[in-house]
């Protein structure tokens, strides 16, 4: 074998080894990049908290006092309490025992009108009237819960979203009067 042929063979073999090494390194790099990107995506998804659909707050008052204080705050701001459902009583009539639970349906006629007077907004009428639930848990503490209407506004017509956001903010003001 001539020296030139041997040298070219070694160069070819050496180039082939380097090519294989680079190819493996490239595959490893791609694999590492994929792992990093998928890890970052998972972290981003987990860190982007979804808004709670329901909100719960502890009351600084007893069950009855919470109902009374909320009722005063609601009426003082021009809202109406359309009905209060006594779910404990309803369950009792059906042979079931539960701790005290009352659901207050409240309405601001002016805000409700902004939605109900426009045909294209009437589809959000199931969100009316606003509801505030007051209940006692086994720990003996009274809680107030409500739907987080603000969490839904991105899904609504902009006019409906504006009205729902305003109603939610006003209802939160009522709850602040009893919130611990």
Cα radius of gyration in angstroms: 32 Å
Shape category? extended
Q: Counting H and I runs of at least 4 residues, what is the number of helices?
A: 5
Strand tally, please? 5
Mean pLDDT: 84
Determine the strand fraction and express it as a percent band. Answer: 15-25%
Structural class: alpha+beta
- Can you tell me the residue ranges where pLDDT is under 50 for at least 5 consecutive residues? none
Largest sheet: number of strands, sense, barrel closure: 5 strands, antiparallel
Distance between the termini: 93 Å
Widest sheet: strand ordering: 1-5-4-3-2
Helix content: 40-55%
Reading the helices and strands in chain order gives HEHEHEHEEH
Polypeptide structure, described:
- With 180 residues, the chain is α+β, with helices and mostly antiparallel strands.
- It has helices spanning 3-47, 63-76, 87-93, 109-116, 158-176; strands spanning 54-58, 80-86, 101-107, 130-136, 142-147.
- The mean pLDDT is 84.
- The protein is built from five helices and five strands.
- 52% of the residues lie in helices and 18% in strands.
Question: Quick recap of the structure?
Answer:
52% of the residues lie in helices and 18% in strands. It is α+β, with helices and mostly antiparallel strands and 180 residues long. It has a 5-stranded antiparallel β-sheet with strand order 1-5-4-3-2.
Topology (SSEs and partners):
Blueprint lengths: L2 H45 L6 E5 L4 H14 L3 E7 H7 L7 E7 L1 H8 L13 E7 L5 E6 L10 H19 L4
Helix pairs in contact: 4-5
